[in-house]
Specification:
Layout (H helix, E strand, L loop, with lengths): L2 H13 L7 H9 L20 E2 L5 E2 L2 H11 L6 E5 L5 H9 L2 E5 L3 H13 L5 E4 L13 E10 L4 H4 L2 E11 L5 E9 L2 E10 L18
Parallel strand pairs: 3-4, 3-6, 4-5, 6-7
Antiparallel strand pairs: 1-2, 7-8, 8-9
């Protein structure tokens, strides 16, 4: 399979049409070999427009979802980013291409170690890994300029909001069936503003139960 061609087609046919137009982000996606982040038997569909299973039962988000969420953060090379859910490590790689430092947090050490091996082989050296429950525990290195949550949650954990710097941004997908909403949350002093980026339906993070959507002022 020609992975370079598949990567080009993914960008042109899936990601750009979904209003992902940030040039630095698109360049990063075109550089990262997504097929390296899945099992060998899934490499042929690594660039498809769908979630893919991980060995621990979690899901690798579809490319356009990852791209649209990360675009919402408007990252710079001065930013320190917290990622909740290392997962496959693919989103970690995209974040590392755009930010100055990434702290990637996952509760599953075996899955995180698989991702670490791939990321190390790609010579991405600005990533630090933490193993704990990022939805309930504060990560070492807080506060952060940006937080990326790599799965859906029933409601936004206060522990994450409290780890944002003043002016910091977080992207997180909230809610259950039939509709979830991807939110951009921005901190301004002690206040938090919320903007809906898009509606979607993605896998819940490990340990999250499905809860009805509500409680947000749009």
């Amino acid at each position: 399979m020609n992975f370079e061609k598949a990567r080009f087609n993914m960008v042109e046919q899936q990601i750009r049409p979904w209003d992902v137009l940030d040039f630095d982000l698109l360049d990063a996606i075109e550089e990262i070999p997504r097929e390296r982040f899945v099992d060998a038997d899934l490499q042929g569909v690594a660039y498809s427009d769908t979630e893919l299973p991980l060995p621990n039962g979690a899901k690798m988000l579809e490319p356009k979802i990852v791209a649209r969420l990360i675009q919402g953060l408007k990252l710079t090379r001065e930013d320190k980013v917290l990622e909740i859910g290392t997962g496959s490590g693919y989103a970690t790689a995209v974040l590392a291409k755009l930010a100055g430092e990434v702290v990637s947090d996952d509760i599953d050490d075996a899955q995180q170690n698989r991702a670490k091996a791939v990321l190390a082989a790609l010579n991405l050296t600005n990533i630090r890994f933490v193993q704990n429950d990022g939805l309930t525990e504060t990560a070492e290195g807080a506060p952060f300029d940006a937080i990326y949550v790599g799965g859906a949650v029933g409601e936004v954990p206060e522990v994450l909001k409290n780890q944002l710097k003043d002016g910091g941004r977080m992207v997180v997908t909230v809610g259950g069936s039939p509709v979830q909403r991807a939110l951009l949350i921005t901190r301004k002093g002690s206040e938090f503003t919320e903007t809906v980026l898009f509606d979607t339906q993605i896998a819940l993070l490990d340990g999250e139960s499905e809860k009805p959507f509500g409680g947000f002022d749009f």
